[in-house]
Amino acid sequence: MKRILVTGSAGFLGKKVVLDLLKNNFYVIGLDIKESKIIHPHFEEVISDIRNFHVEAEIHTIIHLASVMNPPKEMSDGEIESIEMDGLKNLLNIFKINKAKKFIFASSGAAYGYTKRNLSPLKETDYVLGSIYFPYSKHKAEAEKMITETLSSNEFTIFRPGTILGDGMRGPVYDYFKKKMVVGVLRYDSPFCFIHTSDVVAAITQATQKENLYGIFNLAGDGALKLKECCKILQNKHIALPKVALRAGIHLLKKFRMTQYHPYQVDFMCYRPVLNNDKLKKNFTGLPSKSSEEVFREFCETELTIKE
Q1: CA nearest to 107, candidates 167, 34, 159
Q2: pLDDT tens digits for 109-125?
Q3: For residue 160, what are the β-bridge partners?
Q4: Closest CA to 82 of 9, 142, 131
Q5: 147: closest CA among 108, 200, 100, 107?
Q6: DSSP code of 284?
Q7: CB-based burial of residue 255 (10 Å sphere; 0-12 exposed, 13-18 middle, 19+ buried)?
């Protein structure tokens, strides 16, 4: 029975990945700073900071899902970077020491950064720029670079998911669409590229099962939804403000500590990455199972209240 190390095993996605691996007859070691409450004869849980974790048991595959996406207010930028980058260094060291076979990393479409380049669908061969204004994006790009420079091409699989929705997923996008009035940027389509949670889990499990499945893969449903289209499905009000006015408004609110957003984040609304999924469909069985529109409609029906 292959032993799989999964970081972030107590997280929303981590739990689903662990349960799917157990269903497929893997022995799983879960690593997190909190309990997952998963009970299974083939599951071993370790509560530890990723930077201090050590393992002596033989590991076949490391699946790195742990990430600091929504850090607590008291956590400094330096601490976040240490968790992300020093934690990854430790995992790569464990990989080498244990002579593991595969390193699977959950990156993000955010690793591409937020520029005018994103107006066209991005392929895996496009360079990951990251964003110095968005630590999550910056760290994902830096992490990919560290992995590809440390490991050989037949040792890693990197996934770049679009916006993940489904099965109780919560986060900034949920909060965004929960509002009665959704704000966009005038003259920018602001497309969303969605992927269902179950498809992300299935991709990770297939990459674990298939010995020769290596490389970098975008994870996205077919197509993309413009913000106006999302609001139409939701039957929510949509207001588009000029880019300059939106930046000025956020700057004023930020000055009086009335918002957690920053003026530079307006670019995130203008240039969301739209991901080409041709490589995913060519190499994975049955993926994606849902288009971006199907994922969003299911999300609205099960997670949000649509006005009658």
Answers
A1: 159
A2: 999 999 999 989 999 99
A3: 218
A4: 142
A5: 107
A6: S
A7: exposed
